[in-house]
Amino acid sequence: VLPAGKVFPIQIGSELFRLSGASISSDAPSYFSHFFGDQLYNSSTKPGELKTLYIDRDPETFRDISLHLQGYYVKPRDGTHFIRLFADAQFYSCTPSSVPRLTQQLFKSEIFIQIGNRDFQVPRDLFSSPGDSPNFFSLGFAHFFSTPKEVFPGLDRQTLLRPPSIQPPAVPNKCGDIFADLVKLLQGYPLNIRDEAHRADLLRDARYFHLKGLEQRLLPCNISYNLTRHKHEMVLRLEDIRQSGISLVPTPSPTSPGSTTSNSPSAPPPTSPPRSGFINYARPFIDETSHELIVEIGSESTRLDTSTMRAVFHGQTKARIASLLQVIANKMGLPATQSLGLMMMQTGRGVAAQPASPANSGLSEERIKVSVSSDAYISVDGTRVVCCDSGAEDGEKPLAPRLRTEDQRNFEDCGREWIVPRGHWRVRVQATEGYGGAEVVLQAVRLEAFTGESARNGQRGFL
């Protein structure tokens, strides 16, 4: 500890600073306290002949450090100022293990970063919501600026003439306005999403910064309570479904008045997963309870054969449907449809080499079974169509449904094959006697379909 009333000269660049022993000792040990302490206690230097400490650094940055030593609170103004304070505070510390108050203060300060052409000061606790950590900031430079023993990795602190050049944190290839909207959401404020292009920009940057919880909040989703079915329902796009949120809610089994209920002490506990019910979904990190899932399938990738009530999917939609069915099969604990050894013999590459197909899950054939009832809202070639019946009961061979227009006229010219550009489907699992004991049925909720090129061309828009 230096004498509190003694003044010590420090030359930083072209300016001379005079600090008292009390100021230097307020944030010790440091390079200053060691330099002047050696002169006072470990050498033959007379008290009136103290040598001036010369350091070739920026005097403006040291002016803020001297204010800190004099007891004032110093807050970085921007990313450049933070980097300069950070580098010099580390340089003036005596050893890598010493963490004076200024260095510790900078370790705990906000994250200073430039996104696009805008500067941000992001509090570290802003990412405390579920799913938002670890993220781009905590895994990158925020970790670098919070580990005092590894600030200058690969460099010997004892022989370091000056700290290395550190560039202020910046992400120049992202939009500052979009990041400002993300920060607003993280702070708990509502955000007016202007259009789907704005939502797509928000989702793209939320994924880039690895903010998984915020991403789930930004996904288009509709949650409502169906009074007719007495269930909470969630409409979600197929591409936005994550396997961790999928669950199967079994259909309640009817019991007679005299039968024993499952709550009775004598009732045996269930020994196997349910084989029938509806698929429910809870958004990861967001929803505490699950809702009955209604999947929205778009992009004109569904072909429905109304004579067999089977649907065929194409492109990415087929791969996503196959993945969804595989997740459902795993949740139900169903066995694999084909052994790994046989796959290796056929392709030499195992599971990854198998083409995406709903039949791989064991819950469906290549063409998925579809159910269309009178509750479904169907539009074919722009005409409202009513389904009089679904054509078959559960477990029976599906038959073509009887279709009528709203004025009760037969709709025989609607064709037996529909192209469905957009559709809402419930995902139902029903027991079957086939392999695995269960199969998936897509239950139509709302369909927009056309039967030929003419109707499709009628929906085209002009540029």
TrEMBL record:
Source organism, top-level taxon: Eukaryota
Signal sequence region: none
Region of interest: Disordered? 246-277
Q: Where is the composition biased (Low complexity)?
A: 256-265
Q: What is this protein called?
A: Potassium channel tetramerisation-type BTB domain-containing protein
Q: What species was this sequence derived from?
A: Saccharata proteae CBS 121410
